[in-house]
Structures are given as C-alpha cells and as structure tokens.
Write a structure and sequence with these properties.
The structure holds 2 protein chains of 2 kinds.
Chain A lengths: L18 H6 L4 H9 L2 H11 L11 H5 L10 E6 L9 H7 L1 H15 L3 E6 L4 H16 L15 E6 L9 H8 L23 E5 H5 L1 H14 L8 E8 L5 E6 L4 H8 L9 E5 L19 H6 L8 E6 L4 H15 L5 H18 L5 H13 L9 H15 L1 H10 L6
Parallel strand pairs in A: 1-2, 1-4, 2-3, 5-8
Antiparallel strand pairs in A: 5-6, 7-8
Helix pairs in contact in A: 2-6, 2-10, 3-6, 3-10, 13-14, 13-16, 14-15, 15-16
Chain B lengths: L3 H11 L9 H12 L4 H10 L4 H8 L13 E6 L2 H5 L2 H12 L12 E6 L11 E3 L2 E3 L4 H9 L3
Parallel strand pairs in B: 1-2
Antiparallel strand pairs in B: 1-3, 3-4
Helix pairs in contact in B: 1-2, 2-3, 3-4
The chains are: A alpha/beta, B alpha+beta.
Bound molecules: flavin mononucleotide, iron/sulfur cluster and FE2/S2 (inorganic) cluster.
C-alpha cells in the first residue's frame, strides 16, 4: 500500500473530517512547527526542496513561484483557486468537502511563507456543500486561535475568507480570477506584471490550486525526501487521478505520480464496461490532447505526458469508447470553450463559434472536405501564443489531437454525409 | 428596495475586501438567493450600496453564468451538458426531461414550476449524468430516477 497523505483521513461515509479528528491524525502540527520556530524563508525553502509542482494544470514549481513575491509591501494576498470548472475535473471537490482543515493548514503555511495578511478561497459557484463545510471549518479554526490574530500564539496574523464565484470557466485563469475577486468581469490581465508583484488590488499575490496547498502540511512535517519518495518519478508527491466515461468504476484515487495510464484505467477504474473498448483518453481535463491505446503504458507525470504530446493537466481523465463518435465528442468540448470564451480577444471570441458551427455541420452530415483544412488552420491560429490567454490554446488541444488521431472519422462523416454512429 | 437583511449580508461581504466593489458578485448572489433572479431595480440598489454605477454592476451581472437577469420558475434545473455527462447519456436524458416538462433549454414551464438551464461540468463526472435543482446536486441519473426526483419539487 502506498501512502496517501492527501486523502488518508477522508471518511468513507462522506462526512467531513472535523477539527479534532484532523488534529488527532497529526493535523496542524506543520503549522505549529512553522509558526513556532521557522522563518518564512525556511518554509519556502522546504517547499522548493520538495520539488512540489502546481496541481492546477500548469505544473509550475510552487516554491519558485512564491520566491518572486517582494518582501516589502503590505498587504499581501494568498488566493486559493477552487474554481474547478474544466470539464472532466472533479478532484478539488473531494478535498474541499472531505478534509477542509487540510486545506486551511495549507493556506496558513503558504500565507506565512509569502507574508500574506489575508487569504481568500475562491470557490466555484456550484460547490455549495464545499462552501458550507469550508466556512464551518474556518469558524472552528478561528475559535481555536488557528486563524485571526497571533495564530498559534505567534506574532503572525491571518484572515481567511471564502468567496463564491459567479460562474465562468475563465475565472480559473489566475489573473481573471483576481479580477473576479475584485468584483469585476473575469477577463484576464496582461502579464507582466505577474500577480506575485501586482495581483489583487495591485498588491503582491499568489494564486495556488487547492490540491497544491493540501500537499504542504505533509512536506513541512515529513520533509522533502519523504515527499520525493512518494512518487515514482523525479516529480515529487502523490496526485489525485480520476477517470470518467464508460469504465466499470469511474472514480478518483490518490496515487504516486508516475503511475501508468493502464494502472489507473484497468486497476482502479476496473477497465472498460462490457461491450465497449477504449479508443481515446483525454488525460487531464478538457484542455489536454487526446492520447490513444498506444499510450496505455505512459507514466503519468508532467514530463512523460508532455513527451507524448499531451499534458498531465488536472490528472482527471476522460475515456472515450469505441461506441462514441469522436466528432460528436469534440463538438461537445468546443461548445464548452465557445460559450466560456471571455470575449476579450478576437481569435478566441470569433474563432471558437466558427469552429463550433463547422463541427456541427460535419456532425450532422453537412460538412465538406475543405472544412478540415479550415479546422487545421484554426488549431494553428488559436494555438499557444496567438491569443491573450491560455483558454483558446486549451480548446485547440482536444481538437488538434482529434484531427490527428481520428481524421478518418471526420472524413467518413463528410463522405457519407451522416454520422456513422447514429 | 433591498431588505435590511439583504443589506446587512452585503455589508458583511463588503467588509472582507479592500474596496466595497469587491463584494459585487456576492451581492448579486445574495439578491438572487432571496428573489430568484436579479431585476433592474436591484442592480441599481446594489450599485448604490457598493459605490459603483448601475452599468458597472450590470456588466458584471451579465458576465457570469450563475447570475440570472430574467425571471425564472420556482425551481431552477441546471443540467450538466459537458463532456463526461454527454458520454454517459446526456442526450436521451435531456430529451426525456424536455418531453416531461414540455420545455426546451432556457425556458420556464407554463405553471412557473421549473426553469431548465444548461450548466457546465458540475465537477462530479464520475457520477455522470448529473444536474442540480436549486441547491441540490443529483447524480448518476437515468430517465426513471429523473421522474422520481422531479416529483419532490412542487
Ligand atoms: C482557462 C483556464 C482555466 C483555469 N482553471 C483553473 C482552475 O479551475 N483551477 C486551478 O487551480 N487552476 C486553473 N487554471 C490554472 C491557473 O491559471 C493557475 O495556473 C493555477 O491556479 C496556479 O496554481 P498552481 O500553481 O497551484 O497549480 C486555469 C487556467 C486557464 C488558462
Ligand atoms: S483567449 Fe479567449 S478567454 Fe482568453 S482572453 Fe482571449 S477571448 Fe478571453
Ligand atoms: S461533465 Fe457533467 S459533471 Fe463533469
């Protein structure tokens, strides 16, 4: 049995871990240790040494990101990204609902390391159970003196608030999230300046994902070597991996980074349901490129998945079976991105609806062969570096890879002027 | 006019931010929770309370999926139309729902009981298909279950 520091306390009956249960299981020791005798710089160094990388999708080293925060100006802010709106992603929900104090302790540690005065948990608007449980847990932590003034008897003060989103996928992008938190439309901001320098209300700010922060208590108590040892690859730690689609047991599991696609799909999810076989895998949420059966033995870590042309992303896979039309699936994905485009830049605002219409035409038997060249071009023109933020390139990931792996299916729709799956 | 209760709650949110306008989305959510949707007068009232212009508040209200600027029925069904639910049988489920209620997406039943709205991934993809009715999440749906669930919302 491998260790599961993120989920080992989570109760099978679905109730949240209470403060006293969390403490009995060793909780808040890391915060006591850090605030009781470590300098903020030492906390930052411990996280750097662990090699922890962001679990929100981009995989940026957490300690390095923190080190760009300037020492001088106050207030500083820590913002927890709990937006989790990417289709196919359901991992942060488990941590928020199941073990809220783990996140609070992670917030305390990161806030202390960067010198934050106030922290916000930005939650997606539909996560009402998570909202209730986080707010209850925060109230319990305040009551014990773990939040507020002089926490754990130290000189350090920290306020922690929950903010519920109004609901837009773009709010997960960290600069759009800051605008949303300021009560504005959630359009992304120009970078630089990066949020570390000029974030919430122009103050130094760090945005980290829920799962990223939940790794911190373990790292502080047990150290960098322990953390690295949890993983099968040079990326340290465990990761929440999920599977949805027509597998026998869809679900979410905490596993070492570096497990293979096959282990997750066959051992954890029980393989494909009777009567269907696997045709494609979107490994890490809707904005990652398709992989296929030939990639079943790929190790799920940041570098290896990138080497085969996709991204680890959020670690929650969507499995496509052979009874599902790839054109229909990509059409559904693009519909999402087209609706969620924030409208700020032209290629994304106008390009995505054009792609959506074209895919709709192909899917309903009205496509032309020249449409495929047009789609290929859009994959280029909405790709990385061509748009104001990463939403549009994210949308092009499943489209571009589907045009590569399932081109024959697109062509067949056009040749036969119908969807062969209907 | 906003009730004192609503005003009080909005003030509580505004205290969490460096500027009062930070509470704009919270304020709209509070109004909507009490009234079902956000009418023009509430936009003006929220603006006055948070030291913003009504147009600023409306630009925010119209940006966000969960803020409704049109009247809705007594219960709002938000059906997940994203990829995992689509893979797991969204289309027949939605067809059944539309037939049962006699309305399409974006519409309200004639008796004002239900409004049906598409929603993005509800973050419960391992229990697809899923929808929310008001504040309740319902998962692992199929047409039969659906009828039983709807009966609970009068
Ligand atoms: C369109 C878009 C949506 C995103 N949504 C999320 C999200 O829901 N949650 C999240 O943690 N990161 C999301 N990200 C990534 C964030 O911008 C950011 O990289 C992340 O929150 C940083 O945290 P981490 O370093 O701990 O991973 C999104 C990025 C983009 C471009
Ligand atoms: S790429 Fe799309 S989401 Fe990003 S800024 Fe441009 S329009 Fe907005
Ligand atoms: S796709 Fe429906 S809950 Fe995620």
């Amino acid at each position: 049995m491998s260790e599961k520091p993120l989920t080992e306390r989570i109760r099978p009956d679905g109730a949240p871990v209470t403060l006293s249960e969390y403490e009995q299981a060793g909780g808040y020791q890391a915060a006591r240790k850090a605030l009781g005798g470590m300098a903020p710089k030492e906390v930052m160094q411990a996280v750097k040494d662990s090699g922890l990388r962001g679990r929100g999708g981009a995989g940026f080293p957490t300690g390095v990101k923190w080190s760009f925060v300037p020492e001088g100006p106050h207030p500083k802010y820590l913002v927890v990204n709990g937006d989790e709106m990417e289709p196919g992603t359901f991992k942060d929900r488990l941590l928020l609902e199941g073990d809220p104090h783990l996140l609070i302790e992670g917030v305390i540690l990161s806030s202390y390391a960067i010198g934050a005065d106030v922290a916000y948990i930005f939650l997606r608007g539909e996560y009402l159970l998570a909202e209730r449980r986080m707010k209850e847990a925060i109230a319990a932590a305040y009551a014990r003196g773990y939040l507020g003034k002089h926490i754990f008897g130290s000189d350090y003060n920290l306020e922690l608030y929950v903010h519920m989103s109004g609901g837009r996928y773009i709010c997960g992008e960290e600069t759009a999230l800051l605008n949303a938190l300021e009560g504005k439309r959630g359009n992304p901001r120009t970078k630089p300046p990066f949020p570390q320098i000029s974030g919430l209300w122009g103050k130094p700010s760090i945005v980290n994902n829920v799962e990223t922060l939940c790794n911190l208590p373990g790292i502080l108590v047990k150290g960098a070597d322990w953390f690295k040892g949890l993983s099968r690859t040079p990326n340290g730690g465990t990761k929440l991996f999920g599977v949805s689609g027509k597998v026998r047991n869809p679900g979410l599991w905490e596993l070492p980074l570096g497990v293979s696609v096959r282990e997750v799909i066959e051992e954890c999810a029980g393989g494909m349901r009777d009567g269907v076989s696997l045709r494609g895998i979107i490994p890490g949420g809707a904005s990652t490129d398709f992989l296929t059966e030939e990639h079943m033995d790929v190790a799920l870590d940041y570098e290896t998945v990138a080497q085969v042309g996709s991204r680890l992303g959020t670690g929650t896979m969507i499995v496509m079976d052979d009874k599902t039309c790839p054109v229909g699936m990509v059409r559904n994905l693009i519909q999402f991105f087209a609706v969620e485009s924030c409208g700020w830049c032209t290629p994304c605002r106008d390009g995505l609806p054009w792609i959506e219409k074209t895919l709709g035409a192909i899917d309903t038997g009205k496509g032309q062969m020249s449409d495929l060249a047009m789609l290929d071009e859009h994959v280029k023109w909405l790709g990385p570096g061509m748009t104001f933020c990463a939403l549009a390139p994210g949308a092009m990931a499943p489209l571009g890879s589907a045009l590569k792996y399932y081109r024959e299916d697109f062509e067949r729709h056009i040749r036969e002027q119908r969807c062969p799956w209907k | 006019m906003l009730s004192d209760k609503i005003k009080h709650e909005i003030e509580h949110e505004a205290a969490m931010f460096e500027r009062r306008s930070g509470a704009c989305i919270d304020a709209l959510r509070i109004v909507q929770r009490e009234r079902g949707w956000v009418d023009d007068q509430s936009v003006k009232d929220v603006a006055a309370l948070l030291e913003m212009t009504p147009d600023e508040v409306d630009s925010v209200a119209t940006f966000y999926n969960l803020i409704l600027r049109r009247p809705v029925g007594r219960h709002v069904i938000r059906i997940c139309t994203s990829v995992s639910c689509w893979l797991m049988g969204l289309e027949p489920m939605l067809a059944h729902l539309e037939k049962t209620l006699g309305i399409g997406l974006g519409q309200t039943t004639a008796d004002g009981r239900f409004t049906l709205i598409p929603n993005q991934c509800l973050g419960t993809c391992d229990h697809a298909p899923a929808f929310m009715i008001d504040d309740d999440l319902h998962r692992d749906l199929d047409p039969e279950k659906l009828d039983a669930i709807l009966a609970n919302y009068k």
